Amino acid sequence: MKRVFGYIQKYRLRLEFQMVIKIIGTLMDLVIPYILSYIIDEVVPTNDVQKIVLLGLLMIGCAVIGLVGNVKANQMASMIAKRVTTEYRHDVFSKIQELSPAQVDEVTIPSIISRMTTDTYNVHHMVGMMQRIGIRAPILFIGGIIVTLILDAKLTLVLIAILPIIVILTYIISKVGIPLYTNVQVALDELVRAVRENATGVRVIKALSKENYEKEKFRKINKDVIDLELKSGYTMSILNPIINFLLNAGLVMVIVIGAIRVNGGDLLPGKILAFTTYFTIILNATLSITRIFTMLSRSIASAKRIEYIMSFSKDLEVSEEPKLETTDYITFSNVSFSYHKQVDNLTDINFSIKKGETLGIIGATGSGKSTLIQLLMRFYDVDKGAIYINGRNIKSIPSDELKKMFGVVFQNDCIFSDTIFENINFGRGYDIESVKEAARISSIHDFIETLPEGYNTELNARGTNLSGGQKLRVLIARSIVGNPDILILDDASSALDYKTDAAIRSKIKETKTGTTQIIVAQRISSVLSSDHILMLEDGKIIASGKHEELLKTSPEYLEIYKLQMGGVQDAK
Question: CB of 115 within 8 A of CB of 106?
Fold first, then answer.
């Protein structure tokens, strides 16, 4: 919550002005019953009509000031809450962009989505409510007690006797409520995860006719959320009825005691009327304060979840590392890595390639091919060994400089809801000719030119208005538009036919002569012309060399070649 108050501090002057307006408007509401009491007890018995009219006009004036002041203050409160939440949410989003993949794995994507949406909304609601009710309710509560003490101290003792019970109940229930709301938000993470998975896999679900199966899974998750919401709601809802009962019981006692004192001549009827009005004001203020505690319980739980993300220190820091004296461009030296630090996903990886060469990496699913790429781009740090680019340990290369070296197409890469031009350019400032040249190399330019709006054609999120091959060629164009030092194609031929795949690789080799290429694939045809080929199995290199060498020295490679290509002609 401290971080939220830090954002509010930026609007301190506006907040102070809003508070002044709110206080004036609230005080006007407190003055009106007192004036009414004075008219009934002091002015009406004198039959001074002029004074009654003047005091009536004064009451109307107070009511107008109260109305205008409260409306204006609420408008300012909404504006401040909107701006605070906008900045807060933007900074949370910026922080998420800085998280390393390992940190994202720890929080999980569904939880990040939930924290960015539901949790920030709860904080927004709290900031607005604290400015509206958080100022007004305590003033009405304290001011009401002060005025009732002035009117009749003995009757006020009835209210004061009830207050300790209310305070204790509020404390106990709020203490129980905060953990419950935390559990609700965790359950919402699961709900977001389920919706996200279904939205992503909707075609698979329909293809396998698993709609009812997914509905049942969602029903259970949804029921868990509802049950937790009900539990937290029931817990916090206990407070209002109990407080309402206690205060109304106190009001009844005030009326009874007041009536006895009026009959005894110790109290005037106007004060009883004013007293009951103030007691109602205090009742409503108390109920508003309980609403604040309910909202605070939810907001504190949400703020803690957001603070957890904001508290992550910067991962993958740049460090001073000795430079390797070598003529090789990319070097993996005794590299081992494990995602969960239990079983190695990569073990003792050693290889090196020179600048401008092409490295092919093949292996079965789960053999560690993509993991090797992620280590090279320093999405994760190695557990053992070191990775060098041009003799520099990647730990010593600033993140921005390192990332600019790469052009990459990942497995399951993403097309964004934007134009074809912007999906290729991706905000990097390339001109249209550079984008078109990249599109020509990736064999997608001719298709784009046939579209009515050409490169300004809007693509759907995830490229749903493109075929698999068209989407992949747009992604390849994105990866090569900037003439990267290192081009990584991670399973980038899976949606392409052999002829198109070979044509694109040939064009890249002709036009990007200074670019070092790393081609990750499961089919040998994509890597057989590479200068070096690595074959991975269970995170280990089981064979390495050129295509012709591997046909002679690696039974595993030869077997895959026979299965995929139908012969060993290249070995002759």
Answer: no
